[in-house]
Input
Amino acid sequence: MRVEMIVSRVLFWGGLVSIVLMLLGLVGYAVRTTRDGDVLNFQRLVENREHARSTEVFVSLAAIGKGLRQRPIDPVAVSALGVVLLLLTPVLGVVVALVGFWTAGDRRYTVIAGIILVELVVSFLLGSAG
Amino acid sequence: MEQWLFLAAILATSIVAGAIGAILGLGGGIVLVPILTMFYGVNLRDAMGASIISVIATSSGAAAAYLRTGLSNIRIGLFLAMATVSGAFVGAGLVGLVPESVLELILGLALAYSTLVTLRQLNVEIPAEPRVDPLAMSFELEGAYYDAGLDRDVKYRAARVRTGFGAMFGAGLLSGLLGIGSGAFKVLAMDYFMRLPMKVSTATSNFMIGITAAASAGIYFHRGDLRPLIVSPVALGVLIGAYLGTRLATRLRNATLRKLFLPVIFYLAVSMILRGLGVHWP
Output
């Protein structure tokens, strides 16, 4: 199979699974707030940034994992997982392209994909450090 | 009930932004950031976060389709992504050092410039045969695609590779600085400098946008600017829009694409320049 086709599939399925997770989280959040009688107020969410911050944002994979292990499961963590998965989808695309070029014996483009991958990994590491 | 209307409005807006993005090779972010901040009162950083994620959603959806049809050139995309990712890296590092108004002004001027460039070659479907660049030969920056509008196969090869590569670094820089995909500049670099057919530039740009945005998005994530409850409806809408836009784009001629391109760019350029000068208007 051509490299283009494999990368195409990775991007398609990565995007789809991520978006489904985001949607599930959103619906779950809506159900929870309705059931608990708490008004689902996106306007408040948008305008009152600092107020919502602590409970409605995740800044590490560990925090997302904790939210997912909770019972009942934290729907916002499910959305957050979707966000992170989407963020990683292009990276996965580059990994797959690298393997594809390697298998096809295209050394030049294996190296090029490798350079991009290193750049991406460094930016993630610097992001978590800063 | 009101909050559901608000959510529906954000979703609908995101669908439109996503469709425009896919048609023009923009990530949709350049449309989304001003709209979310100006019309919905979303905090700028949250808007940039929602934008960068929706940029990846658009790119993944559109690029998947373009790669399958062969319109997206994976070699040209990866070769130039080396430049955009480096640029995004530097750009994200510069955030906070450059005042926001200066950034808006720079973006507005750059957009205005790209409008002029696009105007000059409004009716060119396929670029004239350029001089052969040896770099394009050795890195295989070439290809062919079937153009349904012209009903024939179109062969192409990149020209002025060094200039294009440099312009791509600039495009990546803007992406990292502003939380946008900066697809307009990627298209500009490929279409104008490298003399690639508009459709190939647009399709390949869609592929590169996601990789570039991923570099910035990691930093946004750790900064706490990716709020799932804002990001999710926006990304969902943009993805739906991108799907519809991609289907539409394959049926249009290149000149039609450009005519669609112009008013959007012009409006954004004017509002960005004005914001940079301290005048806030929708």
In short: Chain B touches chain A through 61 residues (CB under 8 Å). Chain B has a mean pLDDT of 79. The first strand of chain B starts at residue 142 and ends at 147. The two ends of chain B are 26 Å apart (CA to CA).
